């Protein structure tokens, strides 16, 4: 009879744990929590159900002396194994990823320093020297004996000034973690800010720049509460270099997906 009661108790509270876990997952998904948090919430619900099952479980025979010590060790081995095994399923912190992100954030700052300018000149000189040596080898192979003068191609540069401006802007989107508040390409966002897939059709580059530098200058339709609470921080004018803001504006100006309902911007001041 006791075994049947314990079985019913396990099934009943196990079902309750699953239901609570599903509710938490649905709520987390509706509020745009990442998938890893949805999994964690479900596991927490099941862990709570397990605790309540154990509270109603029949008492174990009393252990004393060496048996008690062995029992305690076995308990902690099982508990630690379950914890480590469960944690290993979840995404792990990668220092190399964080170092890479810090390097990207500091790239332009290094380039604008005296040391960064010197490093840029050294890199460009090495590149030109390598190209000259390569051309001289080709001439020697053809029997020529001319002196090679290599001019730097127009528009070549390095550091944060190089590459596609829009690509650099997308990089700033990631580095400044704009996805924490805004949803884009179906990813990110906690509903603190509007979806931006079609913002390029609704705001000019000048308006986008104004919004970044002065968040109170524009408000998204339907986001009155977030606007009043100042959900968009007033820090980017101090945090970002003008070139970084230019790149971010260039990226945002390309977002013209009319199939996505981006809220209408309203000029406030």
UniProtKB/TrEMBL annotation:
Transmembrane helix in keyword set: yes
Annotated SUPFAM superfamilies: Cytochrome c
Transmembrane segment boundaries: 12-30, 36-57, 69-90
Highest taxon in the source lineage: Bacteria
Domain Cytochrome c intervals: 164-256
Pfam family membership, one: Cytochrom_C
Coiled-coil segments: 111-138
Keyword tags: Coiled coil, Heme, Iron, Membrane, Metal-binding, Transmembrane, Transmembrane helix
Keyword Transcription annotated: no
Identification of the protein by name: C-type cytochrome
Organism for this UniProt entry: Candidatus Nitronereus thalassa
Organism placement in taxonomy: Bacteria, Pseudomonadati, Nitrospirota, Nitrospiria, Nitrospirales
